[in-house]
Amino acid sequence: MEIDPFIFRLSIFVLSIFVGYYVVWSVTPSLHTPLMSVTNAISSVIIVGAIIAVSDLSSEVSFNLSNTFGLIATALAAINIFGGFLVTQRMLQMYKKRKKEKLK
Amino acid sequence: MTPNSAASFYLISGVLFILALRGLSSPETSRQGNVFGILGMVLAIVVTFLFVDILSSSFILTICALVIGGSIGTIIALRISMTAMPQLVAGFHSLVGLAAVLVALSAFYSPETFEIGTLNNIKKISLVEMSIGASIGAITFTGSVIAFLKLQGLMSGAPITFKGQHFINLLIGIGIISLIIYNTINQSNYIFWLLIISSFLIGICLIIPIGGADMPVVISMLNSYSGWAAAGIGFTLENTALIITGALVGSSGAILSYIMCKGMNRSFFSVILGGFGETNSTLQKNKDKKPVKSGNAEDAAFLMKNASSVIIVPGYGMAVAQAQHVLREMADSLKKNGVKVSYAVHPVAGRMPGHMNVLLAEANVPYDEVFEQENINSDFASTDVAFVIGANDVTNPVAKTDPQSPIYGMPILDVEKSKSVLFVKRSLSPGYAGVDNELFYRDNTLMLFADAKKMTEEIVKNLK
Predict the structure, then answer these.
(1) Which residue from B170, B195, B171 is spatially nearest to B181, judged by alpha carbons?
(2) Among the listed residues B395, B402, B393, B328, the one whose alpha carbon sits nearest the alpha carbon of residue B359
(3) What is the least distance, in Å, from the CA of B286 to any CA of chain A?
(4) pTM of the full structure
(5) Contact B58 A55 (CB under 8 A)
(6) The complex's ipTM?
(7) Of B247, B227, B213, B200, which is closest to residue B86 (Cα–Cα)?
(8) B26-32: which pairs have CB atoms within 8 A and are 24 or more residues apart?
(9) Mind listing the pLDDT tens digit for each residue in B4-37?
(10) Could you confirm whether B393 is annotated as catalytic?
């Protein structure tokens, strides 16, 4: 019997949980807030599904429920992607080392 | 683009996301990490556009949605103040949750587009996956909205509890599981909507009993949920990038919840069951009035100027008073006088994990002067002055001595070991945990009763 592709996806999922576990423990506590904002941004990769949902929209067929949901989801995920990465960048820019010269 | 090459690119984007989190292991590599994250996202989006043979009319609409969402996100990210970070993150989590629900609904209504079956005849396994994804997404959505309202102050931070609450939650929980099973066997639109509505409801019920003090745990928990929701949808879409990301975010949120619980010495279950943060200060009222030494800015400036080392212990009160900038000025003047200055940050200082570090970084405090509890606790004994500003419970020695105390066992900063303690506080009122701080009454403690910002400004003047 052939192995169901579901099992492969499950394997990726389980292994990724372990990768996540070790990677996140190595994050320095002072960067926990940027960690939350960046995980928030990357979880918006769900936009992939939203784009697919809009993809079958053609001019002949009227706008169906699925397309509508897809479009809203695209906009919501886009808020998160731009907002999440930018605010993370803004925070990370503030982390500076002690300067040798006098502070201005 | 063939499905195989698309899948390979999604895998690369998943790896880039892992590298994005890896970068956060130190501030030097973190900015590079963020770039990896952005690259991963761009790759995933471009590959999707190439893969779906998108029709021109829908392409334009999708781009419009992207631009509108992107502009809103950009404006929010550039304008938000760092003090408001917790509610921003809660708000963002709610969007991920809602997006997950919407994508699941799209897949439910046009399964052909997602190649998971035909209308009203979706593959069983896909039905289970999308139901779980939609349900967790819905919980994340309403839960985060409540957390947002509480953090933003639009809703009281006090826990809302009533009789039979846990029983009702349990019933809804069982209901949700039954609906998922029923929907898998007899696929039905009504059942799917009912599932989503009950999940919205339990999201609200789960968060309203949790008090303001437990918010760091709640945000981390919702962070984790948003990850699991994304993973559920990832299974439905058979998308590797989404599965990897979901797992990463899910475990990240879970670890942060664990760290926050440990920082407060609370079990995860007691946080979830809620009710903490109620003002039980009535317990403390009939206490005898003990003598307290109070001082002014001049005394504080004199003490610190003549010290050889000062440790600053900031708490959320400092952030509320917006005193971080003037605090850094004070530290600068002290350094000019040859005083060694460092900062001690407790894991639950602030309203979300790492919040205090961001606030200090914003005020240009170099990150190598800021220490975590375990790295600085032993230094208090050899420190002349501990300057506690806006913190309370995290310095209370009762956590080590009194097993009856609600905060007993909570890891605290050993402030009482330093030669003298300066406490900037408005009054002698207890903190969130409703426990009196015996440190206020010690001989080596000098209370500075004032607003954190005003007092620090005064001290700066006196240092010059």
Answers:
(1) B195
(2) B328
(3) 40
(4) 0.90
(5) yes
(6) 0.92
(7) B213
(8) B26/A28, B27/A28, B27/A30, B27/A31, B27/A92, B27/A95, B27/A97, B27/B367, B30/A31, B30/A34, B30/A92, B30/A95, B31/A89, B31/A92, B31/A93
(9) 999 999 999 999 999 999 999 999 999 999 999 9
(10) yes
